[in-house]
Amino acid sequence: MLRIAMQAKGRLNEESMALLKEIGIDIDDSKRKFLSSAANFPIEVLYMRDDDIPQVVANGTASLGIVGYNEVAEKGLPVEIVKELGFGACRISLAIPKNEEYNGPAWFNGKRIATSYPKILKDYLDKNGIKADIEVITGSVEIAPAAGIADAIFDIVSSGGTLVSNGLKEVEKVFFSQAVLISSGKLSEDEKNLLEEMLFRMESEKVSRGKKYILMNLPKASLEKAIQILPAMRSPTVMPLAAEGWCSLHSVVDSNDLWDKVRQLKAIGAEGILVLNVDKIIL
Ligand code: PRT
Ligand code: ZN
Fold first, then answer.
1. What distance in angstroms lies between residue 147's CA and the mean position of ligand 1's atoms?
2. Could you tell me if the CB of 158 is within 6 A of ligand 1?
3. Contact partners, residue 189, CB within 8 Å, separation at least 6
């Protein structure tokens, strides 16, 4: 049984659950407790605050976790990054009151900076030879300058709207983050196999995303040109048709290229073009 720690509620919860669903793992979420298991895969989900996920994975309470890379870096615990998951993108930035003149990182010398990420901030300040005071605050960091708690903040930014509405401007983008799959690095053989299976399914999902299945009738004389237009996974599938001189051609295309390919195929005589959604591609 593989145990995975995920955020109970918050920004990463929905997409973490969706990720499991996408790879065919059904978590019984109806009577959600702190631990839920899957009906069709030997995995159980441990719901936690995101701050605690690196710790429960590092100490082996859970073998895997889904958490923001920012939390992993801040905690500095021994966990392995297995995969970047492509959601929860954000950055941690230094921001100062918008009317302040900014002349580079030296501005922060002698200043007080409020943050929930003291370790990442200290690393940055040390690397840049800046001496500043770090005020650790766990919530609503953006109000610190107006409240007189600090001169500047170091906080998570995604759209930048929160900074603007608090009269702040982003001056240094220090750390880039997204949700990551982490492991304790102490998996049993069984758990390793289950993780491999999950990664294989994630990869298949990625390959299938944005792909369309295309089939058409084509004059046999245009076959060579059509194969140039449609470089499929190996080569397109060609099937005979009852009508003399015609064949049926099947392939998979990237949806971004679809209309361009359709135009080229029509120009060489393709007819009856059908485009279908692709559910899975297993390579
Ligand atoms: O309860 P729990 O402790 O689990 O949740 P939490 O409140 O600590 O975290 P949560 O749910 O807010 O965020 C979880 C993770 O999502 C973070 O650790 C990041 O990895 C990621 N993430 C992505 C974000 C944002 N985007 C984000 N915009 N986390 C927080 N924010 C906040 C930020 O703190 C600021 O207040 O959103 C505001 C800024 O947003 P913009 O769009 O106005 O710039
Ligand atoms: Zn948190």
1. 21
2. yes
3. none
Which CATH number is associated with domain 211-277?
3.30.70.120
How far, in Å, is the centroid of ligand 2 from the Cα of 50?
5
Of 12, 56, 153, 156, the residue with max ligand 1 atoms within 8 A of its CB, to mutate for a pocket test, comes to 156
Give nearest CA residue, ligand 1 atom 11: 10
Superfamily for the 90-177 domain: Periplasmic binding protein-like II (3.40.190.10)
Q: Give dist(CA 72, CA 79) in Å, integer.
A: 8
- Model confidence pLDDT, tens digit, residues 43-96: 999 999 999 999 999 999 999 999 999 999 999 999 999 999 999 999 999 999
| DSSP-derived 3-state class of residue 278 | coil
What is the whole-number distance in angstroms between the Cα of residue 105 and the centre of ligand 1? 25
Positive or negative, the Cα torsion across 19, 20, 24, 27?
A: negative
CB 278 within 8 A of CB 253: no
Nearest CA to ligand 1 atom 34: 156
d(CA 255, CA 124): 42
CATH number of 2-88+179-207: 3.40.190.10
Percent of the chain at pLDDT exceeding 70: 98
Cα 267 to Cα 81, 219, 238: the distances in Å are 48, 12, 19
